[in-house]
Amino acid sequence: MSSFEEAETEETVTCLHLTFYHPGQGEKMMFRCLDFCRREQVRADDTAKFGRDSSLCRYSLVDTRVSRIQFSLQFYRKLHSSEYGFEIKNLSKKTKLTVNQTELGYLNKIDLPWKCIICFGDYQILAEIQEGEAVDYFETHLHLAEAPILQERCLPSLQPVPENGISPSFPLCQGKSPTEIDENEL
C-alpha cells in the first residue's frame, strides 16, 4: 500500500467568514488589530469575543464607541444532529445588535444564520458559514470590504431597456418578476 492509501482521512473544518465594513475605516483605522491575511483556528470550547478591550476580546476593534465586549460567537453542535452552528450574543449594555433585521438587546442571543449581516452603530459585518466536520476547533477568516455591505435593494438605474428602446412605465423592483414576451406580440 502507498502512503496515500494509509493516510488518515482529512476532515473539513467549519469556517466562519467575516467581512467588515465601517464608513470611517480609511481614516480611523479601527480594524488595524484584525488579521485579514490568514485563517485563524479557534478551539470549539472558546467563545470568540468582539469588542474594544484587547485583553478580553479575541477580535479587537479600535474605536471608543465600541463596547469593551460588543458581542460573542459560540460554536456548538445542534441537538440530535451532526450539524454545527454558531450562536451570537449581544454583550453591549448600550448598543443594540441586529442580525438580518432581528434586534438583540443586552444578553439576547440567537442562532447565526448561514449567511447574514450583523450591524451595530456604523459597523456592518457579513457573516458566512462554510460547513465542516471537525469537532475540536473551527476557523475564522476575516475580510475587509471596500464598499458598504448593506446596499439599496432596488436601483432604478439598473432596469433593463427592451430592444425596441421603449422603457417600461412600471418599475421592475416592485416585487413582480419580469415575464418573457415574444417580440411578435408587441
Automatic annotation (TrEMBL):
Localization per Swiss-Prot or TrEMBL: Cytoplasm
A GO CC term attached to the entry: cytoplasm
All residue ranges annotated as the FHA domain in the record: 49-121
InterPro entries linked to this entry: FHA_dom (IPR000253), SMAD_FHA_dom_sf (IPR008984), TIFA (IPR033621)
Pfam family, one: FHA
GO biological process terms, semicolon-separated: innate immune response; positive regulation of canonical NF-kappaB signal transduction
Family: Belongs to the TIFA family.
Protein name per the record: TRAF-interacting protein with FHA domain-containing protein A
Organism of this sequence: Urocynchramus pylzowi
Highest taxon of the lineage: Eukaryota
Record keywords: Cytoplasm, Immunity, Innate immunity
